[in-house]
Amino acid sequence: MASLALNTTTSLSPSLTTIRSRLSPPKSAILRHNNNRCASRPISTLPALRTAGLGTLRPLVSSNGFSRAVKSRGRVIAVKASASAAAAGAAPVVPAEKKPWQGAAIQPLIASIATGIVLWFVPVPSGVSRNAWQLLAIFLATIVGIITQPLPLGAVALLGLGASVLTKTLTFAAAFSGFGDPIPWLIALAFFFARGFIKTGLGNRIAYQFVSLFGSSSLGLGYSLVFSEALLAPAIPSVSARAGGIFLPLVKSLCVACGSNVGDGTENKLGSWLMLTCFQTSVISSSMFLTAMAANPLSATLTLNTIKQTIGWTDWAKAAIVPGLVSLIVVPVLLYVIYPPTVKTSPDAPKLAREKLEKMGPMSTNEIVMAGTLLLTVGLWIFGGILNVDAVTAAIVGLSILLVSGVVTWKECLGEAVAWDTLTWFAALIAMAGYLNKYGLISWFSQTVVKFVGGLGLSWQYSFGILVLLYFYSHYFFASGAAHIGAMFTAFLSVASALGTPPYFGAMVLAFLSNLMGGLTHYGIGSAPVFYGANYVPLAKWWGYGFLISVVNIIIWLGVGGAWWKFIGLW
């Protein structure tokens, strides 16, 4: 790097002599030279020149890059390269680095906005209101933004709500109505529970117990969690509560205990596979029992109203048990092959886990409070129907105990950024999806599908297969299983029955699929944002593997399940 010292020639006006005398110590401008190109130091580094009354200075770089001039009030001061400055030991000054762009990623943002604009100006189909079509444009633009992530998910969702209010598509109250839905709050509360679970050390204690029993292989550890969750499923009718209140804290503790953490490059060691496996199997266990998911009784009620036949608890379990068990066995090992943990076996892990347990000693007071609170909350989830206490109220009771006892502080809850971000984007999607239904778009879609399939003249088996696929993959437009069931179940069951599908068989299949389709996205069922929010699995992989597992589940439930249902006389 070459240095420039300020030199004035005798040809300049006498006033410059005064300037030179005031430069004490001499001020230097810096010239960075590289391949005959230079960038001069900002003139603000020459304060003596400004105080000499020269006004605003402007650097002029010559074509050869080795000299420059400073223009002020029409006069030019020559500045030439001087070796004497370097010899005098003048330290080179490097220009300050330009701060990186802190805003949205431009290309994903353009893709999201373009999606909305294009659909906005597409002619509105007959039978669809203008408001419904505009909301669909905003909803799809938001979904594209959530996939491409020009901003964090909560920020993208907030922009979508803002657009819907700005365009008068939704009122403010309607746009933010999702924040009054209990499910997003239940999910946020689950993260606060996880904080206490890990902070007290109870999570590590239980995790080490699991590792000591099943930890010699990652696959064995995964299956122990999968079947533990399936055993609890019929007793806890909220998949959000099971996932967030019990299994997310446990799985996170297991990942940490095995050295798989978020943000340090060890996610694939165990956490990525385990999180995705526990999520995908949670939708399977939800489909196996009438009381395993909050919306399952709605399917049974709509079945009774539509075909006048009752789906009982035993009927549901009997039909679902075989395909359900097959899926619970196949899905973990399939993910183990296509999305494997880098650590597959750890023969010494059980012994090390037992040593860790010995070092932990007896349970601390905070651990005991945390364990008691968890048992109370789970008890309220199990017997909430009898006690008239819903899942989110039970979770609030549990969190209140943790806050009052100091096991978890409110400051720590406020610091759970993922919880608040998940609450924001999930509530936003619930609101927009709900109003798509209220504005009649879902009804129009269902009727269009019914007319299309009914006009193909196919056998009931082929017609029902098309209906099943349309019903299943339309869940990309829903942030709630209950909303999807309420909007489309009756219409699809009615047309399936009209086309010759055995009504009871058709109702059962649609009811099972109403759970399985939740595995498609990170917002399609209550357990999705819980496990995705742990940040072990990138969004693209979450959606990609979600689609792949959906195909596997459909094959198992319609193939193996179809044979089983034939055997038990369902069709």
UniProtKB/TrEMBL annotation:
Q: Which UniProt keywords apply?
A: Membrane, Plastid, Plastid inner membrane, Transmembrane, Transmembrane helix
InterPro entries the UniProt entry points to: CitT-rel, SLC13A/DASS
Where does it reside? Plastid, Chloroplast inner membrane
Transmembrane region(s) = 77-95, 101-123, 135-160, 172-194, 206-226, 273-295, 316-339, 368-387, 394-411, 417-436, 448-470, 476-497, 504-525, 545-565
Q: What family is reported?
A: Belongs to the SLC13A/DASS transporter (TC 2.A.47) family. DIT1 subfamily.
Alphabetized NCBIfam families for the sequence: dass
Q: What is this protein called?
A: Sodium/sulfate symporter
**Which organism encodes this protein?**
Trema orientale
